[in-house]
Amino acid sequence: MREDLDGILAEKGAEALLLYSESFRDANMYYLTRFLAPDPFIFLKKVDSDPVIVINQMEYPRAQKESIIKDVRSYADYNFMEVMKAAEEPRLGNIKFIATVARKELGTNTRIYVPPNFPAIAADVLREEGLTIKPMLDVIEKTRETKDADEVDEIRAVQAVAQEAMAEAIDLIANAEADKKGNLLIKKEGKKETLTVGKVKSLFGHTFLDHGCVTEEEIMVACGPKGADPHYSGDPRDELKTNQPIVIDVYPRSIRKRYWTDMTRTIVKGRAPEKVKKMFKAVLEAKNASIDALKAGALGSDVYNLCCNVLEKAGYETTRGGKQIKRGFTHSLGHGVGLEPHESPSLNELYRFPLKEHCIVTVEPGLYDPDVGGVRIEDIVEVKKGGCNNLTKMEIRLEV
Q1: How many CB atoms lie within 10 A of CB 274?
Q2: Exposed / middle / buried, residue 356 (Cβ in 10 Å: 0-12, 13-18, 19+)
Q3: So where are the chain's domains?
Q4: Helix 120-128 crosses helix 90-105 at what angle (to 10 degrees)?
Q5: CATH 3.30.70.260, applies to 2-144
Q6: Is the pLDDT score of 189 beyond 90?
Q7: What are the pLDDT digits (tens) for 227-281?
Q8: How far apart are CA 223 and CA 168, in angstroms?
Q9: Distance (Å, rounded) from C-alpha 309 to C-alpha 262?
Q10: What is the C-alpha separation between 65 and 60, in angstroms, rounded?
Q11: What is the CATH class of 146-390?
């Protein structure tokens, strides 16, 4: 959480923090300021001192009203025009201006942390201007791992939208008819037409927008053997068929609040082959066992290994230990979700760190077989002291 920032900076030997970025795509900048701006602005903060943002004149009045930062200043407060006019070229002038602000507010002898995405050329110029710049990993990201009550509520709200859209998509598939070849058909304006991946994705897109959400990347709707590739998103022209697993993985984001969610269901319209039923049973058991093991203090790697134990006991291979396999469990168990769809912490073999209370992670075991396709089930949960709170309230069923 934000209140952890000073402690993390001090622990890493930093005395101040500097960001220069927009906040539509930069989750760190939005997290620290709660201000949405399409153009870069400056955030700076000394350890144990209140933060400051410095922003262009156009956005200045709005930032004063909308940002959680109380000390909002204008570029004009630092003679922006004079600095720009003295520069050899405009882009260099922008960097010289950052140096001017940082030198005045943070000082040349201060160890200033910048995040990994801070422009390298800007870091070089700031050093030439006498500033002590130290790129560091996992500072703001660590504060974002744990969510406060408002953040949990935002993710819960987006998850409710995801579930509503998922239910509509499953109903569309469940109510479809089948032709003699097993292709699914739906009625539109009195005529029957093939149910394609594109039509299902369109349904998701409309439902998300109706509820103030959007999916920035293509959602996954993968039918049959193509679903054996965990990240096959599904060609819009792909036709959905009976008696084959259909993996549906959606990850919408709130347009205004910026928080994401992530969920997956696997269904079969008609009768699932015995091989798919067996995969589904093992995946569901692994998911439930993993969720039961999640609690504050548990190691991400331990929960992942537990999942692998369940799947291996059921007769499936995993990539644990770096093994290369052609079928089985081929990815990590889960990841953090918040202002990015994939963030820390992780549930994988290498994440040997204790999970903190109020972090939010996905739990998404899956099995993949090129002969029949994939089966993945994914819930999103909040880690608590004695266990976890499952934010996914949708039922899990295979055949529809």
Answers
A1: 8
A2: middle
A3: 2-144, 146-390
A4: 60
A5: no
A6: no
A7: 999 999 999 999 999 999 999 999 999 999 999 999 999 999 999 999 999 999 9
A8: 17
A9: 24
A10: 9
A11: alpha beta
